[in-house]
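hey m, so remember when u said the tokens were messed up on ur end? i reran from scratch. heres the input so u can diff it against urs
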Amino acid sequence: MKVIHCDSETSYRNKKTNVVYASKEEAQKDVDDPNTDTIQEDIAEDTKIIVPPEALAMMSETKE
């Protein structure tokens, strides 16, 4: 069985305002800031998996 190595990108955003933060730390600072009404539940962590084209080609091959 071949192992497919994929890259990933994670971003953090505020679900209420759609503000995208530069880092997890920046999102946490918004939560910790008493001048905002942002709570931990407002922060979404989005992860994108980047599959290389050659891996997609392997997956689409049919067995006979």
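this time it looks ok to me. The chain has one domain: 7-60. if urs says something different then somethings off w ur setup not the seq
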